[in-house]
Hints:
- This protein is α+β, with helices and mostly antiparallel strands.
- It contains seven helices and 13 strands.
Amino acid sequence: MDAVPLDDRGLTLGDGLFETILAHGGMLVAVDAHLRRMVAGCEVLGLPAPDVRQADRLCREALERAGLAGARAAVRLTLTAGSGGRGLDRPAQPRPRLFATSASAPAPVQPARLIVAGTRRNETSPASRLKTLSYLDNVLARREAAAAGADEAVMLNSRGDVACAGAANLFWRTGERLFTPALACGVLDGIVRGAILAAAPAAGLAIEEVAAPASSLEAADEIVLTNSLIGARPVSALNGIGLSPRGLAERLAGLAAGVL
């Protein structure tokens, strides 16, 4: 990959999108779904959509270049708005820059420990529902988690509703009821999240998309994190209070088996 120039808007302004795709044994898992989401994000941001065949080729080349074609790996596909002059306004005809990188991504073997972060998510911003290159709030939330000895941070939105984790969607069970935050709470439409919700009715499982305060999560019997790299990961503690995983993660992973 050529060096990114100093006037690239992804570098200077976070103007762009990314996708993180699981590769396993040389296969790009759910790559079509990831590329559809990037194309949809470009429409929201007013950027030209990438050529999906080129994107697929770049991802595979990144695996080969890193020597990870047969390994479990994370492929990051990055689309910037391209070069631009000083200030906020894009060129009249932006020329996006597309590239891919890859790194080893072992599957997590232990349940996650969570805290509720003080860093909030702005549910009024379209960016809260996209994988933009401006991820600083998520970075800060994860720093809070690390400082507290936790693995991941729960982010509330500006209204105090549960939104997501720093790099994952959330599901929880209270009694016999299952919940996940609604997209309007400032939630990324996760690939695994979507697969679970799509498969749940046929499995006789009702999952409610809700706007719920942190107290609802604190009262949960089980909490599960989902994203394309971890699949469905159980949670063993929230704010230092222990939880006992009882199979919800495995059940949700089964629902998402078509994309995991």
